[in-house]
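Dock tryptophan; give full complex structure.
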Amino acid sequence: MPHTLYRKRKSVWGLTIISNMGKIILTGDRPTGKLHLGHYVGSLRRRVELQNSGAFDKIFIMIADAQALTDNADNPEKIRQNIIEVALDYLACGLDPQQSTIFIQSQVPELCELAFYYMNLVTVSRLQRNPTVKTEIQMRNFETSIPVGFFTYPISQASDITAFRATTVPAGEDQQPMIEQTREIVRRFNMIYGDTLVEPEILLPNNAACLRLPGTDGKAKMSKSLGNCIYLSDTPEEVRSRVMSMYTDPTHIRVEDPGKIEGNTVFTYLDAFCKPEHFAAYLPDYNSLDELKAHYQRGGLGDVKVKKFLNAILLEVLEPIRTRRKEFEQDIPAIYDMLKAGCETAREVAAATLNDVREAMRINYFDDSELIEAQSNRYKTN
Ligand code: TRP
């Protein structure tokens, strides 16, 4: 493997073991609903590309049910129902269980154990300053009644990432503060207990429109509660009606009026999805997105024409996903089997990290012959 890293680790006997550490991906999603285009351009599409690039030694994709429960404690059924939906969306997009370990967070109890030790390395005020947690608290109107589990989920997320020794976390911009917090925990752990954990890096989408795909109403983010999502499993009719009612430029009333591109959702989506070859296929009067944008800004180009173009592109993107999903839906028990096998693999990997963590913290009492001997000598001399 071209990207192999080497990491030194001290053993109890004072020998230095060199362990071969490859490039490892961990990322995941909360199973609170089906996955939508925001998930797709923010991380999912990239994961599949990275998987197929062969540049990573291991890939772990986690269905974060325990994290989803931190603000859905009264509705576990919602999470339970959506695990299969997320798994189907993953497979439909091209994640391949032969190459990527797909697993469910709650089935790997080592993650809780690790989070418990990390809690001692993070202060309450540091958590309060986490911008993602701050906005999420506002969005959910928690005010002062924030569940402790929700408040501390960045710590739990740090254990998700580090338990798999992930080097790379492909995720949306909103996850940046989580990775920063993880890196701080890793540095603090390694400083106190010796070099044990790997510092991860976030891999953001390389296109600005994909960093923060707005909802179809032009609002900040796609969200189920706002009803502004296009789901990967939507029918062509559903996609079409969402696209045709998309928020554009409210001052662009007649076709001949000049229109604005900034904040115009249809153009943001084109930035995220349009490729040069789409013009020849669906809109041969134009050669490039720049040309289309210039015409819109000049005036004389109607919203409907641009929306129809976007709809054609989205159909092309979503059709193979929808078809594959239908195939996977034919054998649901096989998907649970795949997830179960994934959980077993994930658990083995996390357990190995936990062994290293306990050794580093010197709480591996029964494997520590030096400790047992020293204590025994102490009592013998008396
Ligand atoms: N917080 C992520 C989300 O809301 C889900 C998640 C949980 C995650 N643990 C993770 C993402 C670890 C990346 C790495 O979608």
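Observed: The chain is about 55% helix and 10% strand.
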